[in-house]
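FORM 7B: Structural annotation worksheet

SECTION A. Query
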Amino acid sequence: MAESQKKGSPEGTPTADMYPSKILEYMEGFLISKTIFSSCELGVFDVLLGAERPLSAEEISQAVGASLDGTQRLLAACTGLQLLNTHQDNGQVFYSNTEQSSVYLTRSSPSSLYQSIQYSSRTIYLCWHYLTDAVREGKNQYEKAFGVSSQDLFQAVYRSDEEMVKFMQLMNSIWNICGKDVVTAFDLSPFKVICDVGGCSGALAKQCTSVYPECTVKIFDLPKVVSTSREHFVTEADQRISFHEGDFFKDPLPEADLYTLARILHDWTDERCVELLSRVYKACKPGGAVLLVEALLHEDGSGPVRVQLYSLNMLVQTEGRERTPAQYAALLAAAGFTNIQHRFTGKIHDAVLGLKEP
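SECTION B. Predicted structure
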């Protein structure tokens, strides 16, 4: 009875010392996201990086073309979030970037997450407005969010040339900061010819050629993705990277020793995953392998929370879900792969490797 009272009355009345701190934190989480999104969109961190000295709120507001009052409030929030440092001089407050803000929140940084943030703000955030509908209906919400049919998933994702570039910039920024971790989770040096299925911007291909200097990488993707990648992301200097156009569900895959599928399978149902992996198995040389790069759930589904949220995002945006290592192993085994292993990287994405018998 005492234990019951400690947790609260049957009627749901809180005890005197109960306070919903976690619930309030979660309720207001989107306020933090939008503060970061808007600060990046306005160019606050870029202005501070370019100034090479702390700036006042007045200077920042003029540089970004915003009201002084609104800028002061935004800067105060960014300071509270530890994205900006403050400096006092003769009673006036000046602002500068933290190290992480300069590295990850400015457009010019090689490790910038700016484009990923813009995609989160202008695409993912809008889709999540319809999360309740997605849960009820069990399908993605592109039609409600953007007025485009989602019957062909990537016709919806790439619904305009501008949106396709944004998505590719998102993937580029992610692999620039964590690509090395996934391509070194296993020793891939025995595999000299790699095919990056759905290789998009080529960022992961570049990580492979950087880590494994004896390999070459074939990027296999839709014709318009290949064209955009050539125009914006992969230059002629990347001589060990080549392109092959096609739809990985319809067209023959190039022969290779290793196939990488980076954040591909989580978009699709189990049936479509086995269909694609079977096509990879057929094209793969004997003794070859496939590397899946995905965010792995714990086997009991208890976490990580980030991956559980990613799985909700897959419901809102795609046909797929995030999976456990055993679930990915089952998909690989159904396609014929053996000796399946996985590695947690400690970062946002993990790795699963399956072999094709010699």
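SECTION C. Observations
The longest strand covers residues 284-294. The chain has 17 helices and ten strands.

SECTION D. Sign-off
Analyst initials: ____
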